[in-house]
């Protein structure tokens, strides 16, 4: 499954469940959803990690840049909940990077100026720990094995699952 599935899970559990199902049915993940960026920092390569959340899953991701032991992810989102929905993927990128280095972290860099006063100008440095992996595994297990509910948020108007979401009915 692609690492970007964690963005969907963070935004809405229902959206995450359907996208997780969609990706589980694909045999060949060529990461066609990965965008090309105009800004290049370091190298860009496909990383993978096996993750246990009750079942083993192969997670594949392509950070926007890799410089030694730092994964870089660019984003244009500058909402009030920035970077909350990117945190799970950022932690996964850090652990993927640890295949080549002992210590790794992810830098989330906004490509637009801050709108809100309390947001940093440069971005966030995400340093992972084991408790976050436990949280991610727990979230994945709940989504795969349980009944999840959608919740209204700013991403809903563009969601293709809003026709079946109880929040919209």
Description:
This protein has 169 residues and is of the alpha+beta class. It has helices at 5-11, 13-24, 87-97, 130-145, and strands at residues 47-52, 56-61, 65-67, 70-75, 105-110, 124-126. It has one domain (5-158).
Explain briefly what this protein structure is:
The protein has helices at residues 5-11, 13-24, 87-97, 130-145, and strands spanning 47-52, 56-61, 65-67, 70-75, 105-110, 124-126. Helix 1 runs antiparallel to helix 2. Strand 4, helix 3 (87-97) and strand 5 (105-110) form a beta-alpha-beta unit.
Number of helices: 4
The helix content, as a percent range, equals 25-40%
Largest sheet: 4 strands, mixed
Q: What would you call the structural class?
A: alpha+beta
How are helices and strands ordered from N to C?
HHEEEEHEEH
Q: What proportion of the residues form beta strands (DSSP E)?
A: 15-25%
Low-pLDDT segments: none
Q: Mean of the pLDDT scores?
A: 80
Q: C-alpha Rg, in Å?
A: 16 Å
Q: Structurally, how many domains make up the residues? A: 1
Q: Give the N-terminus to C-terminus distance in angstroms.
A: 30 Å
Shape descriptor: globular
Which strand order does the major sheet show? 3-4-5-6
Strand runs, count: 6
Short descriptors:
169 residues; alpha+beta; 4-stranded mixed β-sheet; 4 helices; 6 strands
Secondary structure: elements and pairs:
Elements: H1 5-11, H2 13-24, E1 47-52, E2 56-61, E3 65-67, E4 70-75, H3 87-97, E5 105-110, E6 124-126, H4 130-145
Parallel strand pairs: 4-5
Antiparallel strand pairs: 1-2, 3-4, 5-6
Helix pairs in contact: 1-2
